[in-house]
Structure formats: C-alpha cells, structure tokens
C-alpha cells in the first residue's frame, strides 16, 4: 500500500527520529536549512492552541470464566471463575507546561500493566510502571510428594517403596494435583531530566519477582522422579546514563546492571524407589545460583554533510560466587564456590553516506569478545552409581566474534531500486570441536514500485561457512565417532530467496502476499544434520465493504524439513531420520460501525493455528514416531454501544478450543517402570469468557 507524506507528516516523523537520519545523510538535515530570510516574528499558528486540563477515559469490567483447564488463562488472562479489571487512559496538561498521564490495561487480570508519568515538557519526567505476566502449563500434574512449593519434598510416612513404579502399592492413593505455572510481577521507577539544550540524563530502577513451580527431575542410579521445582526469583535492574548533543553530533554514556537472587539454593527430595546399588534415600539438586551482571557503554553519532557515522563501545562483567551446595556429597571440594567471572567487551561502527541522488553506501563492523576468567579446578568425577576415580575440569569457554557488512542501494529510475551487499562473520572459540568458523554471504534485492497500485520486491542471498580443522578432544566431547559434526560448527551452504507483493486493485481492497525459501546444505557432514529446508508463505487481504463495514483475512504456512544421519556402530552412517514440521495460521475479522443511529459497533475476530510435527527413522525398515500436534481455535465476538456522549458499554465473548497430543505429556505415573511421572498432562478443552465493561470519557 502506498502512502503520501505531506509537510506536517514529514515534520512529525522527523521529530520522532524516523526520517531525520536519512534526510541528514542526503543533505536535508535541519542544520543545513537556510533561514536567513525567514521572518519568524510573523509566524502565527491559529490552530496550534495547546489544550489544557484533563482528558481521557477510565473504565471497569467484570467477567465470568468457564474453563476446566488452567492453560486457557494464557489466552484469557483470567485464572479464577470471576474476573475484574480496571482500564485508564488519563492525561493532564497545565498552562505552564506541567503534564501528567496514567495508562492502565487489565489491572486485576493475570496479564496487566500500568504507567504513570509526571513532569514538565522539555525539562523532566518521572515514571512509575508496573507489569504482571503469568504463564500456565497445567494444574493437573499429579505427584505423591508433600511440601510442594518448598525446598524439601517428602513422602508420606506410610509410603511403600518399590523397585519399580508398579510395586508402589499406595502410589495412586497418594497422588495430589499441583499447578505448574510462573508469575512475574515487575515494578519500576524512572527519572529523565533535560538540563538544557546540551545535555540530559536518566535513571531507571526495576524489580521483578518471579514465583511459581516448574518441572524438574531427580535421579537415583537408573531411576528418576518428576519433581516440582520451586521458583522464587528476585531480579533488580538499574539503568542510568547521560546524553550530550550538538547541532550535528550526539553522544551518551550508559550503565546497565542487574542482580539476581534465588530464595532457594537447593532442592531435597525423598527417594520413591527402593534404594539399590548403594543409592541414597534422599537426593539433592542445586538450583539457580545468585549472580550479577554489569555493563558500561559509550555511544555516539556524527553527521558530516551527507555522511552519518555512529558507534558504540561497551564493557561488561558477569560474576557468580555463591557457595556450592554439598548436601549428600561426601567428597572433597576443590573450592567453596565457583568464583565465576566472565568479561565481555565489544565495539560497533556504522557509516551511511549518500553519494548522490541515486546512490547510497553503508558499512558496519561489530566486534564482541567473551572472556571466561573462571578458575579451572580439578573435580572428582562422579557417575550415578560410584566414583570412577578420574578427574574432570570445568571448561572456561571463550568466543570472539567479528562481523563486517558492506551494502549499497541504487535508484535505477523512478520506482526501480536495486540493493546489494556482502556480509562476513568470523567466530573464534576455545575448547570447541572447531576453533574458527568463517561465514560469507552475498545478497541482492530489487524493488519495483513504478506501477500504480503495485509494490513488490524480491531478495536473494547465498552464504558459505567453513573453518579450521574439525577435531574433537577430551575438552570438547566424549563422542567416539570422528564423523560426527555439530550443526552450528559444520560446513554449510545456505541459499535463500524472499519475495513480497502488495496490490490494491481498487481503493477499498489491499492484498499482500509473501514467500520465502531457504536451503541449508551441510555438504561435508556424514553424521549429524545433513540438510534443512524452510518454506513459508503468507497472504492477507483487507476490504472496506462500505463506509461502515470492514473485512480482513490472512493465512500463513511454514514447512521445515530436516534430514539427519546417525550411526549405531560408531562408524559410517547406518540410520537416517527425517523431521517434518508444519505450522498453519488462519485468521479473519469483520466489523460493522454506526448501527442504531451511529451508536453501536459490532465485530468478530477468529484465528486458528495448527502445528504438526512428525519424525521418521529408517534403519533397514522405516519407523514412524507418530505425529505431534497442537490445534487452537480462538473467537472473540464483541459489541460496543455508546450509551451517552461520555459513556460506552462493551460486551465481549471469547472462546478457545485447544487440543494437543504430546506423547511426553501422556505418561501415567506408573507408565514407565523406572520413572515416576506427573501423569497425563495433554490438553483438550473448550474455554469461555464473557466480559462486560464500561468506560467513561472525561
């Protein structure tokens, strides 16, 4: 779809920073304007009166939620049967420039946010913000453990241990449902201050609390139990910086730091099986340790005529020195804590220059280095049943990445534009199967917009990755097959083609179509990922039936097919696998405005998505692992009625139909002899939500 920009629109975009860079590169920056003959004193904008006072709206809503599966709360943001919410969009502007605003969405629901801003235009602004996000997996996980939510999981006094899950006589009677979900609550405070036209500063503080339960597992020898791991994280983040700017330059010094704390350092759990091979009756597992991260960066931009240069340098440090948990571990530790330390540093430089009206050149360089300075210690190597007596060492992985890009775009004629470029990347790794990999990509893009009501482009690229000799060692891998290649390090040829067409055959209809094809050929890999194909396309349409009625629709499909080769005899390939993934997304929407004397608006939105995956393995005969799928239908029917000049009443009906068949979620607690699982946790439900809300305009 084509849009025409008038002078007012262009000025607004420039003020927002969306076109200022491009215009400055062409010599059209405001600093280049000739204002000698402009009589500013005679300017009089009769329509530029600034509205003062209060404006905006506030609303409340109440809803009823009908669902037998808590996963529906991901779509409805409502966990309980009854739900209520508060919405607000309020603004105040004073004659002296003082201003304030309150924005709130779904306060009281599981996913909600709020922002409060107070300040004076061009001088300072104080911001208070709040955000709540919840994700739900299931509320039907079954576990015999007591103390769920704490760091000590125990079994009942009358628990009957067994050599297998079938021998646990009171397993079924001891099962209780638990909810696997995570909730994040984030609150922040920020201040921005504009001292004068030269410099400004800001500081933002944010605290996030994350609580809930997630799935984990504990093992004794060859027997394991699914466990509910407690989550009680606190993350504090601080950002601060100072900015300096002139007529054609800008610079900023920034700091970003975070501190992570976990309320629980370890999780203990009773052994549900009869101890065998010297196994213990209680197990322990370490949980996420406390850590810190700090980064300082310096960035800047300079405009020299038709050339813009900007860059950034940064230095960061990550540390982790929490004491090791040694419960249940009877061997000498080489140190009390990891005393982990990782330093990061990098630099970025970008240059854009408009040579003439037709040609523009751009170049960039990125350098990033990750230096792991953690001390290397000797550790007693433990298997699940006994001490081997061998020594193992923690591996300090390092990586250095250099990326360079060169590009150009050339205006062939009106409505004809050609772009092209070359991208280069080099990675240097320590303690990896391959110390160095290099990747080069060339690409070209042609855009055609010369025809009325048509806009189209096509882009193609070809890249190659190779590197140093591939050689596994005791530092990098314990694999015995020298033919095995890791896909992120292996030689690869990548071919990719993309295209998009936008057409408006009539003023009220817009059609958009896009397609993408990508082929990754791991031509030197005998064992591992050998080929991957990614094909996707999408189409969307928007039709204005009349002045009051609109219809929209879209469809998207993506197919990913991966080929893999393996060996069971640590020699040449003797089995082959194919993984086929397909995702379909369909959507449509319809709305009708100005019904009932222009007081009523009605509409309906519908989406359907289906993700399907299948794996086939051939080793003499072909075996099908079976399909995995997840299907979901979402419907939202709504009506908005303007009851008075200031009050609107809205009713929404939402429905979600969801079904999946993940085999990993369909295991009974005693379905596998040496695995005590959470039971069947696949989803198959219909959920409904009715929400009545009212809003009042000031």
From TrEMBL:
Protein keywords: Cell outer membrane, Membrane, Signal
SUPFAM superfamilies: Porins
One Pfam short name: MtrB_PioB
InterPro entries on file: Beta-barrel_TonB_sf, Decahaem-assoc_OM_MtrB/PioB, Porin_dom_sf
Compartment list: Cell outer membrane
Main localization (coarse): membrane
Keyword field contains Membrane: yes
Signal sequence annotation: 1-24
Coiled coil: none
Protein name: MtrB/PioB family decaheme-associated outer membrane protein
Organism, as annotated: Shewanella eurypsychrophilus
